[in-house]
Amino acid sequence: MSGVLARPDAEAADRLRAVQAPVQARLESVLREMRRIVTTDVPMVEQVAGHLLGRRGKMFRPTLTLLASDLEGTPEPRAVTLAAVIELMHLATLVHDDSVDHSAVRRGLPTVNSMFSHQVAVIMGDFLYSRALCALVAIRDFDVVRVVTDVSNELSIGEMRQLAAIETLSFGEHEYEMLIRAKTASLLAAACEAGALCGASRWREPLARFGDRLGMAFQVVDDILDYTEDESVTGKPSGNDLREHKVTLPLIGALPAMTAAQRGRVEALFRDDHPSDEAIQEVMQAVADAGGIDYARGVGERYAQEAEEALAVVPASPARAGLVDALAYVTDRRR
User: 69, 199 in Cβ contact below 8 A?
Assistant: First the structure.
């Protein structure tokens, strides 16, 4: 990957538009398909679904699915339904995450658990999963079903691994890699692989690898941003992972190089159920001073390079160019 992982900047929105340009028309169809899949006669479900779908996200994962299906210029119509399934599964994980973390806001808007209740959030997340899987079965393709149902299992495992990463400074890089592969990379890999099965099946394996490495880089960048950007950029308070006692790669990379005093501040923060903003800022500075952020950037660059190498076997096309742009978007984005 040429260059280095850049600090996120205002070019991220332009990069995303470039990624989505080859499939923009079909992306609008994905939104309509999502609404069709979740439509029901239960008023509470309709209200919550309207809240979720009304705050259109970046649609990054369904974009990958559509691009992968178009690599040979012969995308199948079912790719739109599959892209909708992928995005609904992503939404389900966000709804569950917010409830587990007791988050009140996501990207400036109230979460389901804060707007309704934690009970509603849990049930709504389950509903999104179940409706997505029903739509998936209707595609009647065992290979596609296997890819997506496998990732639904990985996402659940990822959530359990996330709990293991809380309040334990012994959580190491190997455990971190397994966590982010299950929690983040598995869905991006499935988005790419399943998309390839809907129009470009001979590129299934390199696309799965590309999605996996893209997802790994995505999460590493996300974890770096928590240390380097403020709430106006990320949509969450800076240092939020430390506030929630989550051990991520910048901290893992910094701990071996910390002084006894720096390590003591980290341990004190993790013992405090409600660490102060000052304590969080001190640990964030200690992580930077000990080289944790630079270390994480190096790891992210390696994943980005491996993602680029996975695409090297795929012939040039507008869809492939979109995937290359997706990699640039991930490494340079704002959250």
Answer: yes
Dihedral, 219, 54, 30, 148 alpha carbons, nearest 10: 50
- Nearest CA to 37 out of 136, 146, 177 is that of 136
Q: Please measure the distance between the N-terminal and C-terminal CA atoms of the chain and give it in whole angstroms.
A: 21
> How would you write the pLDDT of the chain (335 residues) with one tens digit per residue?
444 454 444 567 778 888 999 999 999 999 999 999 999 989 898 998 888 888 778 999 999 999 999 999 999 999 999 999 999 999 989 888 888 878 888 777 888 898 888 898 899 889 999 999 999 999 999 999 999 999 988 988 888 888 777 768 889 999 999 999 999 999 999 999 999 999 999 999 999 999 999 999 999 999 999 999 865 444 455 798 999 899 999 999 999 999 999 999 999 999 999 999 999 999 999 999 999 999 999 999 999 999 999 999 999 999 999 999 999 999 886 54
Fold for 12-326, please state it: Farnesyl Diphosphate Synthase (1.10.600)
Tokens of 172: 């190491």
**Could you tell me the pTM of the whole model?**
0.91
- Read off the tokens for 23: 């499939």
> Counting beta carbons within 10 angstroms of the beta carbon of residue 74, is it exposed (0 to 12), middle (13 to 18) or buried (19 or more)?
exposed
